[in-house]
Write a structure and sequence with these properties.
Helix 27 packs antiparallel against helix 28. The protein is an all-alpha fold. Strands 1-2 form a two-stranded antiparallel ribbon. It contains 34 helices and 2 strands. It is elongated, with a radius of gyration of 50 Å. One of its GO terms (biological process) is regulation of cilium assembly. It comes from Canis lupus familiaris (Dog). Keywords: Cell projection, Cilium, Cilium biogenesis/degradation, Cytoplasm, Cytoskeleton, Flagellum, Repeat, TPR repeat.
Length: 806
């Protein structure tokens, strides 16, 4: 043991190479034969293994590093390196990816003729058809959606038969069958083929292999509701309710809401009240609360109406406050995020939900306010107080404005004005709305100064209020300043491009300024928004007429009478245009239709009588001139025309009696005496001398009257003959037998402005709505506040949404 201990030399010099010849005897291979432990290990089972070819082996029998075994050098590590193969000793290059072996063999080709492959392709095609059907339905092409659904159904049946031939029935794809049948039933229902839809739904419901198919009875109940079969609708709704577990709370609430709506349809308000009260106690929502108020209103329970209104007010909106979308700092990253979410889909949904809640509350308040108290004013005050104490504080002012509108409906204008004037000291938004309505009221009363004053107040309170700007433009329009009015209308359109009143009024303004091309552009734009507006259609036709394009005017008037086929003014205008084009037959058709709907239009009666005279049917013209004499009994010309028609048709005795009757009513009519003298002379009656004497006396008095008129003037103007109730010059030509004969021109003169269907140069009457065509029509600017005044007090019942499975 001490032999391995080396003492430090006594000398100070260190031996740098000492110890290099020393070694561990364990590694001495020459002495292995004398190693007892090694020889013992060789004699054991480990040592009886097949002899190794290596010349030197370790005590574990493993080849040494770098040793050659089976022609391959052992790697330098315990784990074989990537790419190290037996070929390394043969001089081969390093090829870890095996690129030297060439391209991979081709894949095995699919057998497209195999039954499994055909089934897969057919199933893929069925899924594509179902998707195409759904897409077509969402795009509004219901017919194409139904065709795709039917095609999917046919291919799915072929698929089932092929699967039954190849595999066992258990391998049939039930989900695909369910989706195909459900889509087909839904498309039948969308196309109002209710019998086929019910049959298809029955196939699904009766098949026990479809799980949760019982909930489709809701859809069947919806179909029965559309068919007004309310008893069956309730039956199927209740069956669906029984099959839906209580964990599906939202779906059960929707079904109960549909049951309540169906009870309202049948007049079973007590049952409807039970349904809606249960909903409001379990999961209150806006529609159920509003329908509960309707039910209580139907049974006349005042106290319950108040409680239901309070429940409706208390329904949570579950939306974020507007302060969330206001940036609290100048952080650009935060500002970008707020700007991105300010008008995203979620924000739009929140706005829609809030607007719907306000609509329900406003409608409910207008509905119950007149009946919950002794007077509607007290009822409105109660509703306003309840709203002020809720989350809908802003609606209180709108209710006050509706209170003023209710006063207007009751013709109590003073109270309406007083109510609206209360808002002059409120915030700018409410002040602007109240001032807009006040401006509208004064405008209707032709008090343009007051209207202009309140229009200015509305504009100053809210410069971006399009209704206020429109009313201000109307007051300027009424004063004749069309250029300035156009500027106000343009500003209203810049603030709200959907303000149809401003767009219509600017078209009228351009027409007054004789800028017909710009006026036509405005009315054509408005036509794209209001497709069936009779006013817009007439204005387009009128502009084309002013542009001397009668063919386009006729085309637009044809569209107008397709919207209002009984408008006598539009029909007479069509007759006038066809008459100016020389088409008498078409003109007669439309004039006759106009006369049939409104037999008191003098111009139409005159044209029809003249038409029959020109076509030598004087007997038919008599009835039109007789009607004209009834409408204007003080006008002698119509009675003269009746007598002339009798004379032209050869009935001289009837003509003589008619002239005598005219002479008794109008003894100073010269034309009547001339005809009497002529007829009495031709027939040989003794009264001819009497009528001749009267005629000479009247002609002499006429000459004296004309001389007095002539002498009373300075001579700058020529003599003007003045005859009371004189007939037309055509009637006077009948005095001579050799004259061309009495003839009334069939060509109509242009209609006066106050007789045009929708317009006039008069600004005295203001009305924005389409006026009854039986009377003179006035063209004027539309008043923006008219929409607010025309709102109905009561809205229709809100029905629950159809419940369709997703």
């Amino acid at each position: 043991m001490m032999q391995n201990v080396h003492l430090a030399p006594e000398t100070d010099e260190d031996d740098l190479y000492s110890g290099y010849n020393d070694y561990n005897p364990t590694y001495d291979t020459e002495e292995l034969e004398n190693d007892t432990a090694f020889q013992q290990a060789v004699r054991t089972s480990h040592g009886r293994r097949p002899p190794s070819k290596t010349s030197l082996a370790s005590s574990m029998g493993r080849p040494m590093t770098g040793a050659i075994q089976d022609g391959v050098t052992r790697p330098m590590t315990a784990v074989r390196a990537a790419g190290f193969t037996k070929a390394a000793l043969r001089g081969s290059a390093f090829d870890p990816l095996g690129q030297s072996r060439g391209p991979a063999p081709p894949l095995e080709a699919k057998n497209e003729d195999s039954p499994e492959e055909k089934i897969r392709q057919l199933e893929k095609k069925v899924n594509e058809l179902v998707e195409e059907s759904c897409i077509a339905n969402s795009c509004g092409d219901l017919k194409l959606a139904l065709e795709k659904a039917k095609d999917a159904g046919r291919k799915e049946r072929i698929l089932v038969r092929q699967r039954e031939q190849v595999t066992t029935p258990e391998n049939i794809n039930l989900d695909l069958t369910y989706s195909v049948l459900l889509n087909l039933a839904s498309q039948y229902s969308a196309n109002e083929m209710y019998a086929e839809a019910l049959t298809t739904f029955q196939v699904i419901v009766k098949n026990k292999m479809f799980s949760n198919a019982g909930r489709l009875k809701v859809n069947m109940g919806n179909i029965y509701l559309k068919q007004r079969n309310y008893s069956k609708a309730i039956k199927f709704y209740r069956m669906a309710l029984d099959q839906i577990p209580s964990v599906h709370k939202e779906m059960r609430i929707k079904i109960m809401q549909n049951i309540g709506v169906t009870f309202i349809k049948t007049g079973q308000y007590s049952d409807a009240i039970n349904s809606f009260e249960h909903i409001m106690s379990m999961a209150p929502n806006l529609k159920a609360g509003f329908n509960l108020i309707l039910s209580y209103f139907a049974v006349g329970d005042r106290d319950k109406m108040k409680k239901a209104f309070q429940k409706l007010i208390a329904v949570p909106l579950e939306i974020d406050e507007d302060d969330k979308y206001i940036s609290p700092s100048d952080d650009p990253h935060t500002n970008l995020v707020i700007e991105a979410i300010k008008n995203d889909r979620l924000r739009q949904m929140e706005r829609e939900r809030k607007a719907m809640a306000e609509k329900y509350i406003m409608t409910a308040a207008k509905l119950i306010a007149p009946v919950i108290e002794t007077s509607f004013a007290v009822g409105y005050d109660w509703c306003v107080e309840v709203v002020k104490a809720s989350q809908y504080v802003e609606l209180a002012n709108d209710l006050e404005i509706n209170k003023a509108i209710t006063y207007l409906r009751q013709k109590d204008f003073n109270q309406a004005v007083e109510t609206l004037k209360m808002f002059e000291k409120k915030d700018s938004r409410v002040k602007s709305a109240a001032a807009t309505n006040l401006s509208f009221l004064y405008y209707l009363e032709n008090e343009f100064a007051q209207a202009s004053s309140y229009a200015d107040l509305a504009v100053n309170s809210d410069r971006y209020n399009p209704s206020a700007l429109t009313n201000k433009g109307n007051t300027v329009f009424a004063n004749g300043d069309y250029e300035k009015a156009a500027e106000f209308y343009k500003e209203a359109l810049r603030n709200d491009s959907s303000c149809t009143e401003a767009l219509y009024n600017i078209g009228l303004t351009y027409k007054r300024l004789n800028r017909l091309d710009e006026a036509l552009d405005c009315f054509l734009k408005l036509h794209t928004i209001l497709r069936n507006s009779a006013q817009v259609l007439y204005q387009i036709a009128n502009v084309y007429e002013l542009m001397e394009d009668p063919h386009q005017a006729i085309e637009w008037l044809m569209q107008l009478i397709s919207v209002v086929p009984t408008d006598s003014r539009a029909l007479s205008k069509l007759g006038e245009l066809y008459d100016s084009e020389g088409d008498k037959s078409q003109a007669f058709q439309y004039y006759y239709e106009s006369y049939r709907y409104f037999p008191s239009n003098i111009e139409v009666i005159e044209w029809l009588g003249a038409y029959y005279i020109d076509t030598q049917f004087c007997e038919k013209a008599i009835q039109y001139f007789e009607r004209a004499s009834l409408i204007q009994p003080t006008q002698v010309k119509w009675q003269l025309m009746v007598a002339s028609c009798f004379r032209r048709s050869g009935n001289y005795q009837k003509a003589l009696d008619t002239y005598k009757d005219i002479h008794r009513k109008f003894p100073e009519n010269v034309e009547c005496l001339r005809f009497l003298v002529r007829l009495c002379t031709d027939i040989g009656l003794k009264e001819v001398q009497e009528y001749a004497t009267k005629l000479k006396r009247l002609e002499k008095m006429k000459e004296i009257r004309e001389q007095r008129i002539k002498s009373g003037r300075d001579g700058s103007e020529g003599p003007r003959s003045r005859r009371e109730g004189s007939a037309s010059s055509d009637s006077g030509q009948n005095c001579s037998a050799s004259s061309k004969g009495e003839r009334l021109s069939a060509k109509l003169r242009a209609l006066p402005g106050t007789n045009e269907p929708y317009e006039s140069s008069s600004n005295k009457e203001i009305d924005a709505s389409y006026v009854d065509p039986l009377g003179p029509q006035i063209e004027r600017p539309k008043t923006a506040a008219k929409k607010r005044i025309d709102e109905d007090d009561f809205a229709d019942e809100e029905l629950g949404d159809d419940l369709l499975p997703e």
